[in-house]
Specification:
alpha/beta
Length: about 375
């Protein structure tokens, strides 16, 4: 599907932007749960690596199914090399094929969020407002505390993405595929970096006020060793400053249509298509400050007319009804796409009779038949 389709050549092939830009191209795969996001992102990553790209595929989905798709243990929380055994090289314009590499990483959003909260606690403390008579400081601490306790959904995923920014800064990859959690969290994830960057700024302001207040410093030093407190606070401050920079970098990357695009993944059912159309509209018309491009929509598990052939009227009748239902739902998403300026392409991927696993199995998607609806 990806290797043979010219509409994916921007990702699979090589162009001037690969040479001129310091950022890799990031592809965010999102959609309703259970539509094959992980399989699609893994297959796309394998295809780009087999075309000669240095690829990292990263999952922030708590389901942790990326390792299952690649048939590799990713529980260590660090990058793992994925050998491309049995995967034929993909020849593309500007590339030699077969010289790329693939690494995979599963990030635990819950653990990442805990580290973020711990850094804040070390800097301003959970109970630093106890015994503080300064009403301005007490109010500021309570305000920050309320924000931390009511962080928006999707914050854990954004905090985890700070590790993705670290990967990008290392400059080892020219393609990064992001396998995300289901739709709702993904939408919130795209607008959360600026919120977190502003939150950290408020925390740092409160921290400076705490450190400049003699009574507060005396209160804190009586509870802990002063030097331990200063060291922990300085370490936490540095961690939060680095995290804040990562959030600004992430926001810039999300807002750069030349580097980042969103790949909507769905299946040909009414509920999945409805949610995908909402996602498409939200990404296209939702936030003018977040111009993430949607260039392609992948519809998985599509049955063609040849799939309706089988023994017995019951089997053929079932497959025929299922095919008609899929066709109707796919037509709905086509109509939604056709009404847009510069619309994304809709690619129908054939229904596979078994779940692809491992890089050798994932090449089945690369070699499978597909049908593209031109914009």
């Amino acid at each position: 599907t990806f290797g043979s389709d010219e509409r994916f050549q921007r990702l699979v092939g090589f162009d001037d932007n690969d040479v001129e830009s310091s950022n890799p191209k990031m592809i965010i795969c999102g959609g309703k749960g259970g539509v094959g996001k992980t399989t699609t992102s893994s297959s796309l990553a394998v295809t780009m690596a087999s075309a000669g790209h240095k690829v990292a595929v990263v999952s922030t989905d708590p389901a942790h199914s990326l390792g299952d798709a690649l048939d590799v243990d990713l529980r260590g929380g660090s990058l793992v090399d994925i050998p491309l055994y049995g995967v034929p090289p993909v020849m593309t314009a500007g590339g030699s094929g077969g010289e790329g590499s693939l690494q995979a990483l599963e990030i635990d959003p819950t653990s990442a969020l805990k580290e973020f909260r711990d850094s804040i606690d070390k800097l301003i403390g959970k109970n630093n407002n106890d015994g503080i008579n300064n009403s301005e400081l007490s109010s500021a601490l309570n305000s920050v505390g309320d924000l931390i306790d009511t962080l928006p959904a999707g914050t854990d995923e954004v905090v985890a993405l700070a590790k993705v920014i670290q990967l990008i800064r290392r400059g080892e990859f020219d393609r990064v595929v992001l396998d995300t959690a289901p739709t709702g969290h993904t939408l919130r994830m795209l607008t959360t970096p600026s919120f977190l960057a502003d939150l950290i700024e408020r925390i740092l302001v409160v921290s400076r006020k705490l450190n400049s207040n003699a009574a507060v410093k005396m209160l804190l030093s009586s509870a802990k060793n002063k030097y331990d407190l200063d060291d922990a606070g300085e370490t936490a401050k540095n961690e939060l400053l680095k995290f804040q920079v990562s959030m600004y970098d992430l926001e810039d990357l999300f807002a750069d249509p030349a580097s980042t695009e969103f790949l909507i993944v769905t299946i040909g059912t009414e509920l999945a298509v409805r949610e995908s159309v909402r996602l498409l509209n939200d990404l296209t018309f939702g936030d003018p400050d977040m111009p993430i491009r949607v260039r392609n929509v992948i519809v998985n598990q599509v049955l063609g007319e040849s799939d309706a052939e089988g023994e017995g009227d019951n089997l053929q009748g079932f497959v025929t009804r299922l095919t008609k239902s899929q066709s109707s739902s796919i037509e709905d998403i086509r109509m939604a796409v056709d009404g847009m300026n510069d619309p994304p392409r809709v690619t129908e991927v054939s229904y596979l009779d078994m779940e692809p696993r491992g890089v050798f199995g994932l090449k089945a998607l690369l070699l499978s038949d597909s049908k593209v609806t031109a914009p």
